[in-house]
Amino acid sequence: MSEAPDHWIPGSPKQDSTAMQHVDAPMARRILLQRQQLADNPRTAIDRDGLLDLIERLGFVQIDSISTVERAHHMILFARNNTYRPEMLQRLLERDRSLFENWTHDASVIPSRFFPYWRRRFLRDRPAILGRWRKWREAGFEQQFDDVLRHVQDNGPVKARDMAPGGRPAGGWWDWHPSKTALEFHWRTGALSVCHREGFEKVYDLTERVMQAEHLSAPPEEEAFIDWACRSALQRLGIATTGEIAGFWGIISPAEARVWSESAAGTEFPRVMVGSVLDQRPRTALADPAVLDQTPDDIALPPRLRVLSPFDPLIRDRKRCQRLFGFDYRIEIFTPAEKRQYGYYVFPLLEGDRLVGRIDMKRQTDADALVVRKLWWEPGVRASAGRDARLEAELDRIRRFVKVGSVRYADDWRT
């Protein structure tokens, strides 16, 4: 039996049918960048329909409250299209109802046409969520669930602070008052939905009053649910291990993804060996057949340098990020200041198909400036006039996006 070479690249002559095809790390990361919508021209004008299409192709956009420069969901979308503006997303969520908020691996904005699959997830997750929360809430807290749901039904949209003792806002999850716990439980299990936000505070209402009727169809059966979760994840990743398939949405288990990959449905997708830029053995993965007809030249990447959110889906799987890009990234917001390697909230820098550095910066509205505090280039990445110019251009784009007048640099911003 002939053996596939260590670094087979899609588009090269076909291998013996008994040999597993190999995809090297540079090609695998170009495929990932393409499927994560980072190969598109970021200057192409986008409208609401285009934004909805972008989010559907991504699958979801993670939400986070930290706004050191701008909140994560806005940074994720702006990195892909520089004509994006936050009010577009707000309209899709709060007026058109083309998107909804719920949980993937974390709180996210999700296309509403996927809502029936979340109805299946709600049924699956309800016992586990209730079991976890019983461990940290006082006995009898579940009595609030029916009362809170009835209150929303009778009185309309509510915020957690509306139902807190004395109107005080809730702190972290450990400090949730019983009504806040009930609101979150009903949101995580489907009876309530987020109808809008005030500031960044969720406002809840009955799901049937928030979601359009066309998205309230019955949930699919288990087999169809798992098949959709796996297929749609692989479509958005291009090439993925079963663990990566399961982790994409965070709605099925790795064991379910493995069983699916061995089923008739899973065997529609060829198995390949994926290389690494590290000293690691190639990994077995499934591939969307369409990627195996591509060559590196088929995936043209914008040459510009781009700032990514720390919650960007490209880097969310830290192990995959290391294997394909050689980029070791951690968010250090929960790391004590004296133990941080870089900083509280540091942004990765993408240039072409490489993660070339990271930057610590902050929007300071009182100074009307985007303030750059520190810049680190990755080992082997050289500072140059061209790279400096690309960085300046990106920082100016972000400055305009967050509506401040200038970019300022700390005295020791270059490491």
Q: Work out the helicity level.
A: 25-40%
User: Kindly state the mean pLDDT as a whole number?
Assistant: 91
Q: List how many beta strands DSSP finds.
A: 15
Discrete helix count = 13
Largest sheet composition: 5 strands, mixed
Folded structure, characterized:
The protein is α+β, with helices and mostly antiparallel strands. It has 13 helices and 15 strands. The chain has helices at residues 25-35, 48-58, 72-80, 86-94, 115-134, 143-155, 178-188, 207-210, 222-237, 242-249, 254-262, 318-325, 385-401; strands at residues 21-23, 61-62, 99-103, 107-111, 158-159, 192-198, 201-206, 239-240, 271-274, 283-287, 305-307, 346-351, 354-364, 369-377, 406-409. The strands form 4 sheets. A 5-stranded mixed beta sheet has the order 11-12-13-14-15, with helices on one face. Strand 12 (346-351) and strand 13 (354-364) form a beta hairpin. The protein is globular, with a radius of gyration of 23 Å.
In short:
It is built from 13 helices and 15 strands. The protein has about 425 residues and is of the alpha+beta class.
Give the topology, please.
Blueprint: E1 21-23, H1 25-35, H2 48-58, E2 61-62, H3 72-80, H4 86-94, E3 99-103, E4 107-111, H5 115-134, H6 143-155, E5 158-159, H7 178-188, E6 192-198, E7 201-206, H8 207-210, H9 222-237, E8 239-240, H10 242-249, H11 254-262, E9 271-274, E10 283-287, E11 305-307, H12 318-325, E12 346-351, E13 354-364, E14 369-377, H13 385-401, E15 406-409
Parallel strand pairs: 1-9, 14-15
Antiparallel strand pairs: 2-4, 3-4, 5-7, 6-7, 8-10, 9-10, 11-12, 12-13, 13-14
Helix pairs in contact: 6-7, 9-10, 10-11
